[in-house]
């Protein structure tokens, strides 16, 4: 009841310490953050209509799409024909080990792992800022289809409007809730990822550059402080920058930059594996900056 009352007041812009600029609204299907009347992002609690046009194993919850610029351009993509398992702003480990099995949370068609929305913990509101905290459940499906919980993940999202851009702080805390550790095996991709708009298919349509001035090819599996993906949408330039927090495990993490498709991922297991042990927290922090025109951190 307390959270529902807070939601009602936020939706009406009443006195909860929030300015009239930012607001966060929750429905049965999604949580949406607005700057004025402009949608900044939608967090999907239930499968979208696009899920119905794809095979059931590609259905996903617990991710952000669309993510938009201040002028309303949609930066992210979802259920792309070439990679329907990539969903906007999402987190997924690829090659893992657990109790002698090999769950996988990235390639959904293998049906060996699932990440899903579990619960809304909090709706956040402060002057000039809005956001939310949600819980995800990571389940191993590799044991003859039996779903075994491995990780509980909290996403804390805070959003601000700054000049011609939005700043989204995303903190992920993954806690091993099983009796056995989850091993994140050495692999060339997997982790905190973004799928860009399909109009950016092709290296010239969607440019990817790093803080070291490297492009897709030379920047792949480098360790930059940030990555920018940008290009024209609706005839005007825009883009997104992902900035790693210096407290992240193995900072700066390696990045997988796809040679032609509009996606990249921060991948801390590129050169060696690691484990998330029972009761242990794995914390990742990123700032996503969505802009019109151009922007360099």
Put the structure in a nutshell.
With 297 residues, the chain is mainly beta.
What does this structure look like?
With 297 residues, this protein is mainly beta. The protein has two helices and 19 strands. It has a single domain (2-292), classed as Beta-galactosidase, Chain A, domain 5 (Distorted Sandwich). It has helices at 2-12, 216-219, and strands at residues 22-26, 30-35, 38-44, 63-67, 89-92, 96-97, 113-126, 129-143, 146-162, 165-176, 182-184, 191-195, 207-210, 226-233, 236-244, 255-257, 263-266, 274-276, 281-292. The strands form four sheets. Strands 7-8-9-10-19-15-14-13 form an eight-stranded antiparallel beta sheet. It has a four-stranded antiparallel beta sheet with strand order 1-2-3-4. The longest helix is centred in the first third of the chain and has 11 residues, at 2-12. Mean pLDDT is 92; it is low at 1-20.
């Amino acid at each position: 009841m307390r959270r529902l009352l807070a939601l009602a007041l936020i939706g009406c812009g009443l006195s909860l310490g929030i300015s009239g600029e930012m607001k966060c609204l929750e429905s049965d299907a999604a949580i949406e953050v607005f700057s004025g009347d402009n949608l900044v992002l939608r967090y999907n609690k239930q499968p979208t209509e696009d899920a119905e046009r794809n095979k059931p194993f590609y259905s996903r919850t617990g991710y952000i799409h669309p993510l938009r610029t201040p002028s309303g351009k949609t930066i992210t993509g979802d259920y792309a024909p070439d990679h329907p398992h990539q969903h906007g702003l999402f987190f997924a480990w690829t090659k893992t080990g657990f109790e002698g099995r090999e769950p996988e949370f990235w390639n959904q068609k293998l049906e060996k792992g699932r990440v899903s929305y579990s619960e809304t913990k909090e709706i956040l509101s402060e002057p000039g800022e809005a956001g939310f905290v949600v819980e995800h459940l990571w389940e191993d499906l590799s044991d003859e289809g039996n779903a075994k919980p491995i990780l509980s993940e909290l996403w804390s999202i805070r959003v601000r409007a700054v000049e011609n851009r939005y700043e989204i702080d995303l903190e992920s805390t993954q806690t091993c809730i099983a009796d056995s550790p989850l091993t994140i095996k050495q692999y060339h991709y997997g982790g905190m990822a973004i799928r860009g708009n399909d109009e950016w298919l092709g290296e010239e349509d969607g440019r990817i550059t790093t803080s070291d001035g490297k492009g897709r090819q030379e920047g792949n599996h480098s360790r930059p402080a940030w990555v920018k993906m940008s290009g024209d949408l609706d005839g005007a330039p825009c883009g997104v920058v992902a900035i790693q927090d210096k407290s992240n495990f193995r900072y700066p993490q390696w990045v997988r930059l796809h040679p032609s498709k509009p996606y990249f991922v921060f991948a801390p297991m590129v050169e060696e594996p690691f484990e998330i042990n029972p009761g242990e927290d794995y914390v990742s922090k990123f700032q996503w900056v969505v802009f019109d025109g151009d922007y360099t951190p």
